[in-house]
Write a structure and sequence with these properties.
The chain has 399 residues and is α/β, with parallel strands linked by helices. It is 38% helix and 15% strand. The strands form four sheets. A seven-stranded mixed beta sheet has the order 2-8-7-6-5-3-4, sandwiched between helices. A four-stranded antiparallel beta sheet has the order 11-12-15-14. The longest helix is centred in the last third of the chain and has 28 residues.
Length: 399
C-alpha cells in the first residue's frame, strides 16, 4: 500500500473561507429574501482598469495571427514585464539587477512554493495573527513553527525574539490586521536575520495601499535586506487581478548558503531551477495586461481604484470609531481589524453579524490563536454595499 504525507493530519481539514461559505449558504437558504453583504474574503469588486483591458484585448488579437502568436514563454516571465516591474521598484528607490524579478500566477502560489528551497529542519517564525497559507504550507512539510504574538500592546507588529529562527514570514501591510511596519522596525528584523543567518520571506501584496511616505513599501528599502530577504507581491489587490492571476517575486542574486557537502547554493539560481521544472509561466496575454499596469496611464487608473477602496475603509473606520469599538488598519491597508464587542469570541461575532445584519466578515480565530476575539472586514466591496453594511452594523450594535 502506498504511503501518504501524514503531515496533512496536522492541518485543519477545512480552509477558513470554506467554513464561512457553508454558514453563509445555510443562512441564505433559510432567509432567501435577505441580501447578504460580503465583506469577508479579500476579493475586489471594481473591474480591471481600462488601459489593462485594452492591453489584454490587443494581446488576445495577437494570439490569433501567425506572425504574432506566442506559445510557451519564459518560465520566469517576459522581459517586457520584468523590466516594468524593475522600473516600479526604482520609483521606490530600490535598484534590482537583471534576473531578480520572477513573474508568477500570484503571491499565494509563490509564498507556498518557495518552501521547496528550504530544508525541513528549519525553524520557522510566523507572526500571529497570520495569513493561513504561511502556516499550512510549512505544516504540510512537518517543519517546526514558532509563533510570535501580535496584540494591542505591540500594535500587532511582533518584533524579533530572543530565540533563534531560520525562516521568517513578515507581511506589511499585514493581512489580517492592517498594521504596517515602519523603517526602524524592519531594520531590526533585517539585523536579526543577518545575525541569525536567517531568511526573511516578505509579503508585500498590499504595498500599494501605503500612502504615508515614512512607511516602507518594500523590504528592499531597508539597508542590508538584499542580503537576507525575498519579496512577494501581487497584482490581485493592486490592480484587480484576482480573477486574472499575476504576481511577482524578487529573489536577490547575492543570497547564498553553504550546503552540508560544502558546495555553495544560490537562492536566485535555485528558484530559477524550481520554476523551470515545476511552472510553465504566466500566459502571454496576462503578462501584457500586467505590463499595462505599470504604464503611466495604468498606474493612474489603478490608483483611482485604490482610493475608492480606501474611502470604503474610512467609512468602516468611522463606523467603529462612532461605536467606540477599537480597531487597527484602514489607513494604509484595505482591512479593518476590530475587537469583538462585549468580550465575544470571533465566531460568535460572525454569527451575530450574519444573523442580525446579513453582513459577512472573517473571524479572527481563522488567522491563528492570537486572532481570537478579533474580526476582519474588507474595504473591497462597492460603495453602496459598504454604506448599507455600516448602517446595518450600527443598527445592530447600538441596540
Amino acid at each position: 500500500m502506498f504511503s501518504v504525507n501524514e503531515h496533512y493530519l496536522d492541518i485543519k481539514q477545512s480552509y477558513i473561507f470554506t467554513e464561512i461559505a457553508a454558514r453563509v449558504r445555510k443562512f441564505s437558504e433559510e432567509h432567501p429574501d435577505k441580501k447578504v453583504i460580503r465583506m469577508g474574503i479579500g476579493d475586489v469588486t471594481l473591474p480591471l482598469a481600462k488601459t489593462v483591458v485594452e492591453a489584454l484585448v490587443k494581446a488576445s488579437q495577437e494570439m490569433g495571427v501567425k506572425e504574432t502568436f506566442h506559445g510557451y514563454g519564459p518560465e520566469q516571465g517576459y522581459d517586457f514585464l520584468r523590466e516594468r516591474i524593475s522600473e516600479y521598484y526604482a520609483s521606490m528607490g530600490v535598484t534590482l539587477q537583471d534576473g531578480e524579478v520572477f513573474v508568477s500566477d500570484g503571491a499565494k502560489s509563490d509564498v507556498a512554493n518557495i518552501t521547496d528551497l528550504f530544508g525541513n529542519d528549519n525553524v520557522v517564525l510566523i507572526c500571529d495573527p497570520v495569513y493561513p497559507v504561511y502556516v499550512d504550507t510549512n505544516r504540510m512539510l512537518g517543519r517546526t513553527i514558532k509563533f510570535l504574538q501580535g496584540d494591542e500592546s505591540n500594535g500587532f507588529l511582533p518584533m524579533p525574539p530572543s530565540f533563534h529562527g531560520d525562516i521568517i514570514y513578515l507581511c506589511s501591510p499585514n493581512n489580517p490586521t492592517g498594521a504596517v511596519y515602519d523603517r526602524a522596525q524592519l531594520k531590526a528584523w533585517v539585523d536579526y536575520a543577518k545575525a541569525e543567518g536567517a531568511i526573511i520571506l516578505f509579503d508585500a501584496a498590499y504595498e500599494s495601499f501605503i500612502e504615508d511616505p515614512s512607511l516602507p513599501r518594500s523590504i528592499f528599502e531597508i539597508d542590508g535586506a538584499k542580503d537576507c530577504a525575498i519579496e512577494f507581491c501581487s497584482l490581485s489587490k493592486t490592480a484587480g487581478f484576482t480573477g486574472t492571476r499575476c504576481g511577482y517575486t524578487v529573489v536577490p542574486k547575492g543570497i547564498e548558503v553553504t550546503a552540508k557537502n560544502g558546495k555553495t547554493l544560490n537562492l536566485n539560481a535555485m528558484w530559477m531551477r524550481r520554476q523551470t521544472t515545476k511552472f510553465n509561466g504566466v500566459p502571454y496575454i496576462i503578462q501584457r495586461g500586467a505590463e499595462a499596469v505599470f504604464t503611466p496611464e495604468g498606474l493612474k487608473e489603478i490608483r483611482e481604484n485604490i482610493q475608492y477602496y480606501k474611502q470604503n475603509a474610512k467609512i468602516l473606520a468611522d463606523c467603529f470609531t462612532e461605536l467606540g469599538i477599537p480597531f487597527t488598519g484602514g489607513i494604509n491597508s484595505p482591512y479593518i481589524w476590530l475587537k469583538c464587542p462585549d468580550g465575544m469570541d470571533s465566531w460568535a461575532f460572525f454569527d451575530l453579524l450574519l444573523n442580525g445584519a446579513a453582513v459577512v466578515g472573517t473571524p479572527g480565530a481563522g488567522f491563528g490563536d492570537a486572532g481570537e476575539g478579533y474580526f476582519r472586514l474588507t474595504a473591497f466591496s462597492d460603495r453602496e454595499n459598504t454604506l448599507e453594511a455600516v448602517e446595518r452594523i450600527k443598527a445592530l450594535l447600538k441596540k
